[in-house]
Structure formats: C-alpha cells, structure tokens
Design a protein that fits this description.
Layout: H1 2-31, H2 37-79, H3 88-120, H4 124-157
Helix pairs in contact: 1-2, 1-4, 2-3, 2-4, 3-4
Amino acid sequence: MLYALLKTLHLLSVIVWLGGMFFVLSSLRPALAVLQGPQRLQLMQAVLKRFFKIVLVAASVIVLTGGAMIGRLASASREAGLPFNMPLELHAMTALGVLMLLIFGHIRFVLYKRMNTALAGNDTTTAGGTLDSIRLWVSVNLTLGVVIVVTTLLGSAL
C-alpha cells in the first residue's frame, strides 16, 4: 500500500513537471507571438516564477518518493536474503533524473536570475536572449524526461 502511494505521488509529480514543460513549449510560447517583445518577456517572467515554484515541489517529491521506493526494494531484497541488484532502467532513471535536476537548477538559479536582472534594467535584448536559452534547456529537459519515461516503461516490460 505504501509503495503504491509513493509510486502514485512520484508519477503525478513527473506528469506535472513534464506536462508543464510541454505546455510552455508547445502552447504558451507560440501564443505569445500576439504580444509585443516587452509584454511577452514580462508575461514569461511571471509564468516562470510560478512554474518554477511548482517544479521545485514536484522535483522534491520525485526525489523523495524515488529514493523511498528504491529503499523499499533494497530492504525487501535484504529481508529475502538476496543481494539488491538495482535494475538497469532504475540506474538510467536515477542518472538522467539527476541530470534533469542539475539542468533545472541552471535554468532557475542562473538563467532566470539573469533574465530578471536584465528586465529590471530594461535590457530587453539580454532578457530575450536569456529566455531563448531557457527555452533550449527546457527542451533538453523535456527530451530527457521523455527518455526516462520510455526507458522505464520498456525496461519494466522486458
């Protein structure tokens, strides 16, 4: 029962993070073309401020529940007198998940901060270029997230 709850929270948090990135890239960003440059930047600044708070919570839940689920698997193996050999797909999920967290950290604490500083100084050229960098790294993170999902599903199907 606890494992099912952990897995549900884990998956819901993954859906929130990946779904948010997909929405921003596929729907919000293209729709912003109707706004002028400074308005577009201000709206994205406000959207990202909210979204990054959500991602911080989702990422924390992902890390905590993922660690707890791996811990429960390891504990069950030990209780059965077996060595714990973590499946390859869990190694891939963990490694790529850490990479996603590092990329998110760079987006949130370096690029977003740079964009905010540029906007505070009315430097829309720098802010726009930084927003383009954010888009690129969000695209990388979304791709990594999809690879994790596919790898995990294929690995558990074998």
